[in-house]
Structures are given as C-alpha cells and as structure tokens.
Fold this protein.
Amino acid sequence: MERQRDRYKPTKILDHVIAVSLGYCHSGAITQDGSLYMWGSNDSGQIGDGTTEDRYKPTKILDHVIAVSLGSKSQWSNYTGWQFVYVGIE
C-alpha cells in the first residue's frame, strides 16, 4: 500500500483542471475533458470507486461530469444530460 505524504508547498497533481471541490478528508476535480478524479479518505465509500480503500493519488471515477459537490462523507456529481449521482453515507 502506498504511504500518504504531507505536502508543505504547492505540488502539481493533475493537469487541465477546470473545477475542484473539497470534502472533509477527500477531494475531487473535473478536468477539461469532463473526467471526474477523486482522492483522499474513503472509509464511507465517498470516493465512488466501489471500495472503502483510501486513494492517495487522483483516481478517475466518471466521464462527462459538469459539476461535483463534496460533503463530509459523500459526493454529488452532475453528468451532462442532467443525471445526478450520489455516493457515500445516506
């Protein structure tokens, strides 16, 4: 398992980002091509990759995403075509 490292200065982790959202201990970013990448704590499945394993690097989760909003242990994603997806604890 990859070990998490603290970052004390800005570190580029992803290219072509057009939007970001931050949750309690997880983050999400949408890139220019509409891909949703998520990373961070995943103890409640909030990353949306079907596991509860923490992700220390951006992990591609969905395509065709136009908006994302992260909560403390959840996420909402808006696909093109106005389909909404909820992931995490209800």
Notes: The two ends are 29 Å apart (CA to CA). The mean pLDDT is 82. The beta strands are 17-22, 26-31, 36-40, 55-62, 65-70, 74-79, 84-88.
